[in-house]
Amino acid sequence: MFSAILISKDDSGQSVAVTQIDDAQLPEGDVTIAVDYSTLNYKDGLAITGKGPVVRKFPMVPGIDLVGTVTDSSHADWKAGDKVVLNGWGVGETHWGGLAQKARLNGDWLVPLPAAFTGKQAMAIGTAGYTAALCVEALVKAGVTPDAGEVLVTGATGGVGSVAVALLGKLGFNVVAATGKASEGEYLTTLGATSIVERAALSEPGKPFQKERWAAVVDSVGSHTLANAVAATKYGGVVAACGLAQGADFPATVMPFILRGVSLLGIDSVMAPKAKRLTAWQRLANDLDPALLETIATEIGLADAIQTAADLIDGKVRGRVVVDVNR
Length: 327
What we know:
- By secondary structure, the protein is α/β, with parallel strands linked by helices.
- The protein folds into two domains: 2-116 and 292-324, Alpha-Beta Complex (Quinone Oxidoreductase, Chain A, domain 1), CATH 3.90.180.10; 127-266, NAD(P)-binding Rossmann-like Domain (Rossmann fold).
- The chain has helices at residues 42-49, 119-141, 159-170, 185-191, 200-203, 223-231, 255-259, 274-287, 292-296, 305-313; strands at 2-10, 13-21, 31-40, 65-73, 83-87, 102-105, 110-112, 150-153, 174-179, 195-198, 214-219, 233-241, 263-266, 297-301, 320-324.
- Helix 6 links the parallel strand 11 (214-219) and strand 12 (233-241).
- The two termini are 15 Å apart.
């Protein structure tokens, strides 16, 4: 038996509770893992609160991230004792996820825990930080350099935003962090932001073509925020879009793309191939100061995850939440 958060659904609606589950109920997979830590991402918050159609089959153990130790494997790449990380692949949506003491997964979904990080640190990064690394990698690959000008990071106090600010700051970029939390200025400058912009300046409907300001953008917000960011991106600038905290709509025009040659890059973390994942984790190992993770992350126990998920959706959580599934 092991402890897990289990989401169930019947005619009366969705219910969520910490439950004892028999090992025989674990789903199919060729690698079994003793989980050490998981996390709470925005998607996990939507799943647990039921405020988004994240869970595709019930009952479901949520948690799109986990780190732990292989206890049993028939997969050629993994053996008992290996430390592994899982991000995405539909885990916590269509396949039981990481908010549990045990998991059984497809070995193709796993990557090794980087030597630069402890398991707890890897989950302080989690899918949010790994997504931020994919965004930064995309900007660098597109040729954006620190001397190009200001780089905007929206949703900067969130998980993706916090790690993106830290990575870009370490690389020498002039990072402008957008946040609606005026009290978080010190937190963001500690991470590497050089200045702060009020979220409201970006989140309301704006002109489709605005004064050039941003050399590049990392956006986890979508909707009007993304539209305004694109509208103010400089000639030849690059925008990496990876989230929809404000909304999935994109109320923009083609003007910035056809008159300024702006590039909009879609960043997917869920189904990214293994080579991209390894590159992203290598960037994190090289360019993310592990000491900053103490600033970015808060640790909770499994029993606290349900309430914290609601707080996350309500915008009351800063940075990353690490879940110790064994307490």
